[in-house]
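Hi there, hope your week has been kind to you so far. Thanks so much in advance, here it is.
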Amino acid sequence: MQHIKRYHSHSFRAAPNQPEIVIEGPVSPESLQDLTMHVKLDAFRKPKEQLEALIEIARLPEGRIILARDGSTIVGYVTFHYPDEIERWSQGHMQDLIELGAIEVADDYRSVGLGKKMIRLAFEDEQLENVICFTTEYYWHWDLETSGLTVWEYRQMMEKLMKCVDMVWFATDDPEICSHPANCLMVRIGKKVPLSSVEQFDRIRFQQRFMY
């Protein structure tokens, strides 16, 4: 299956006297090597290690990195790739099932809508209309301490963010998602996805014979 990658770039200033922030992607691994990570991008691993992980994802045929940068400093990013082999979502090795794996914005840049701008750019020009895009939201990945939000307020914020590109809540019997009521599965089915892929994804979502 051909994965469409059309580079897009937008820039804006949060205020007249603020530096210009560039939103761009999918970016190449070569361009990422010339950038540095903001020191506060440490939700998943240390900034330097996270940059190495982004470069690895960018090298994947299906991988794509959307980023926000202030000059040569990455201040936010979104990753897209095939689901990890240890997760149920990789079952069937679907060529048109892509995971929005991570989204992170540095603390000092969280008030200007970078998350929404990055996700919207990823779906520009119908480049993800031939895939099912999903994301798994787990409360233990959320920055509740810095945000000051409750689990349910953060969940509402994440749902609102994903809905900006028409991702919606989907039910599943996945044990990890079902382990806490705030966890959720958000999905967007591209308009060019065949019914056979939708049905296969449904079989992956529900693997218990009975739901109680």
In short: Helices lie at 29-32, 47-59, 114-122, 144-147, 151-163, 175-178, 195-205.
